[in-house]
Give the backbone structure.
Amino acid sequence: MKDISDLEVRQTRIFPIDTLPITRLLTPAVMKGFNERFGWGGTETVEGDIVLKPGFFPGPDAKDAVIIRSLQFNMRRLILSVVGDSATANIVFDAIATFFEDQAQWTRTEPIVLVEDTGCVVTLAFDWTALVAPAFREFALGTMERFGKYARPEIRGMGFGLRFAYPAVPPELQERGVTLGERVLTIEPRLNVPLAERRYYTNSPSDSDTHIALLESLEHALSQGGKSGAKR
């Protein structure tokens, strides 16, 4: 595994109802300070949630500022998307929480739920054929011949995904009205990059360290033993 790029982490925190200082935050004076602190580029409302994007940490004037893709929140949920790893996202969240404490009179509360999603682009030591069964690989390659009446076609992309669902949540979460949506593990060749370069877009419902470990484990499983999909 090499050449990791476009690493992004999204953290979703669900708090006890009515504990986030949303009403106070939306007052003109506090919001003005919040904009100045993080340099939010715009504000919109999406299905009742307030969405700020993009932002910067430690501030808009810092040369090496962390890019905050978005901050989305309502009365009990806060979703933070950051360009960087989970440790960076935690630092950014702590800065946002500190602002809430100092300027919006928030008594910091631990979330009931914290879930993370990580995405990145990476070069892996196997090609796309390693992700599919041999029979399907032969079918895909053979199908190209049928479509080659005027020119020889090429396979330019494919996708692989696992979708996780939570049909039941613990009673203590049910009592608080917390539901858990579907989570997706995705591995697919990077769009507009030749398949031979083995560049993949990847996403998993995990923190960044776990995500990288998953990719290393997958790479080892698919490239060991001189399999046909392994890079030589």
Summary: Residues 17-108 form one domain. The helical segments are 22-25, 28-38, 86-103, 134-146, 171-174, 208-223. The longest strand covers residues 2-14. Confidence is low (pLDDT under 50) at residues 225-232.
